[in-house]
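On clarity, I found the account of how folds are encoded harder to follow than it need be. What matters is that the chain and its backbone geometry are given together, residue for residue. I therefore recommend that a typical entry be quoted early in the introduction. An entry of this sort, consisting of the sequence and the corresponding C-alpha cells, reads as follows:
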Amino acid sequence: MRKFTTECKEDKYHYSMVLSEVSYDEAMDWLQRELEKYGHEIYRTEKHINGLMYIWTGKFEFFKGDACCGQYVQHRMFYYDEDRGYLMGE
C-alpha cells in the first residue's frame, strides 16, 4: 500500500490520489481508521456503472431538539477503483 501525502491527480477520473496498490478491504479499513480520528464514518457505499465503488463519508447529526432522529452530513466522497487498486477522493 502506498499513501500519497501531496496533491496528485490521477489521469482517468481526475480525482486526488489517496492510496495506491491497495485492496478494497485494506482501503476501507484504512479509511475507517482515518475517519474515526475526526469523528466521521463511512455511511454508504455503492458500485457505480463506471466501475468505481462510491464511498460516502460524514458525521451523523441529530435534528435540533430531537434526540432520536437525525441524518448524515456529508464530509467527503471517496472512490475505489478495483481494476487499478486506487483509493481516490474529491
Notes: The first helix runs from residue 24 to 36. The mean pLDDT is 91. The longest strand covers residues 70-81. Helices lie at 24-36.
